[in-house]
Amino acid sequence: MTYEISEYNATVSALALLREKHAGPFDTTTKDGMALAKEARAEVRGYRTSVEKLRVELKAPALERARLIDAEAKRLTAELSAIEEPIDTAIKAEETRKAREKEEKARAEAARVAELRNKVEAIRQRITAVAGKDAATIGETLGWANAYQPDPGEFMEFLSDAIAARNEGRAMLETMLVDRQRADADRAELERLRAQVAALPPAPPPELPAAPVPPANGTKTNNGRGKKAALTPVEKLIAAVRAGNSRFEDAIQTAYQIGYDDGVVAATTAK
Predict the structure, then answer these.
(1) Is the pTM of this model over 0.85?
(2) What are the DSSP E strand ranges found in the chain?
């Protein structure tokens, strides 16, 4: 076995001699044997302690160099950090500024998009707000929807949404206006029929059947009554209302339906 530290060569050379000289065994039970054992131990111990002393001597410069290496490295690190830290601080400050600016732009963009969406929604709300209103109000809003042209500069990328909201609302308003006008016409017609029925004279009391007159020749008379002119459907309704057999509102609705059916029949016959 070889050793790279040349300072240990003297001890390395003595190893073979020591192994051979002190191979033993020593009879420590006798006085002479104990003396030889102690002498051998002292000799080997001398070599061992010399190796330890030599190790300390050889390592001392290395330890000093290691200490010097650490100390100078620490000093150099401090000097380098003094140069690096201001640069690092500037870089991190700029990175933080850019990150904050990016976040602010994202918030501003979100607010801008939300505002545009609200403007589109305002178009819908202006239209839905007149639901259930009178025909004049609905017609006025329809006129606004027909004339309204969303501004590209105002709605930006949501221009198509604004136009779609306007178009959908316009169609809704047209339907609302037709329905309201039809409802107003129906109400007016019902009022007209109500007034017409109220203006009619009271119905005459029902006629009692006339007593049969015997014929001159003495034959029996026909017990059947004479036929009277048939009442119109409206007259029947009026008589039913006066007799309490029908509610006034139901009679008006029925009379209106009768007139509507007659109109359909007349239109079909005219074809």
Answers:
(1) no
(2) none
